[in-house]
Every structure is written in C-alpha cells, then in structure tokens.
Specification:
It is globular, with a radius of gyration of 17 Å. It is built from seven helices and three strands; from the N terminus they run αααβααββαα. The protein has about 120 residues and is mainly alpha-helical. The termini are far apart.
Length: about 120
C-alpha cells in the first residue's frame, strides 16, 4: 500500500514513472528518439527536420536541447564553415528504445481491441 501513498501525498513526481514521462513526454520527443535510433548512426539537423516535418526549427532545436540536457542525445559539432552538427543517441537514450517499443506495442494491441469493440 506504500506505493499508493505517492499519489495520496502528491508525490507522484518522485516516482520512476514520472521521471520517464518527463524524459519522453512531449509532442516530438519519442519521434525524435526513434528517428535517431532507426538511423543507426549520427544524423544532421536538417535531415531530422525533414524526417519530423512539420516540426518547426524552434521546436526541433528546443527538443534536441532538452534531450541533450537529459543525457539522451549526443550533439557533436565540427569546427568548420559552414557549421556541421550531428546528433546521435547516447547509451542512456538507447536504453529507452525498448521501453518506447513496449509502449508502442501496447498501444497497437489496444487500438485493435478498441477497433473491434466499435
């Protein structure tokens, strides 16, 4: 019963569940993490922009910055003109891929069940 105390005492933010949701929650975070995972290597900013259309430049920049600050994405900048920047998943980010796969699988199963009920 101690687990439910987090909810009754308004401490849900102290749970691993809340931590995980903070990392992957948001309109484009999971899509961006999947794009990086499926690329199997570094990918440049404009390639990500094309993959995630209609994401705006500002939203993509902010989302990448958040994922980098959370240690999920590695940003590598090359000292050249014009600037070249590549993004890839960190080991921490790669560890989230199976979790996201499970969430997607659950959603696909539930969508089929829901569709049959209609």
């Amino acid at each position: 019963m101690a687990d439910i105390d987090y909810i009754t005492e308004n401490r849900l933010e102290d749970t691993g569940f809340a931590y995980t949701l903070r990392l992957i929650g948001g309109k484009y975070k999971m899509q961006l993490l999947y794009a990086l995972a499926l690329n199997h290597g570094p990918i440049r900013y404009n390639a990500l922009k094309r993959l995630l259309a209609p994401i705006s430049f500002k939203t993509l920049t902010n989302t990448l910055r958040e994922l980098e600050n959370d240690g999920l994405v590695i940003r590598k900048e090359y000292p050249q003109v014009p600037p070249k920047v590549e993004y890839s998943l960190s080991a921490h980010g790669e560890s989230l891929v199976p979790v996201m796969d499970d969430i997607c699988s659950w959603g696909e199963r539930q969508a089929v069940v829901h569709k049959k009920q209609l």
